[in-house]
Amino acid sequence: MGRSTTSLRLDDELRERLARRAEAEGITLTSLAERLLRQGLAEITHPGIHFNSGPSGWRATVGGAWDVWEIVSDIRRFEGSEAERLAALAEEVGIGPQLIVIALNYAATHRDEIDARVRANDAAWEEQERIEKARQSLLA
């Protein structure tokens, strides 16, 4: 992905708030502005998507709490038509199928981001299982 320079005129208060936030997060003002622009555009394009911060960084969410990557990972466990899978997951997690569709639409247009989160979670889960087995072997 290429990069280009864009000049923006911001009011002084907004510029200062951005600078303080970037400093608090330990990132550059440019990095913060890029993230906020990406997130804002995603929220406009996919109404219902929001972004939450956590130990693994900023991630797309829907319904106030459900990470998009979790929905994508979870829906893969079900079989049947799209409608059947949506209904089954909606019942299991307690959110409306329309929110699952919003999450899936976001994931479809941000596939690399979501797939990377699913892979990272799978790897962490496998590592925990490996540690559990090793711990149990110590007790045998």
How would you describe this protein?
This protein is 66% helix and 10% strand. The protein has helices at residues 12-25, 29-45, 68-75, 82-93, 97-109, 111-139; strands at 49-54, 57-62, 66-67. The protein is mainly alpha-helical and 140 residues long. The chain has a 3-stranded antiparallel beta sheet. The radius of gyration is 19 Å and the shape is globular. The longest helix is centred in the last third of the chain and has 29 residues, at 111-139. The protein folds into 2 domains: 9-45; 49-139.
Question: In terms of topology, how is this protein built?
Answer:
Elements: H1 12-25, H2 29-45, E1 49-54, E2 57-62, E3 66-67, H3 68-75, H4 82-93, H5 97-109, H6 111-139
Antiparallel strand pairs: 1-2, 2-3
Helix pairs in contact: 1-2, 3-5, 3-6, 5-6
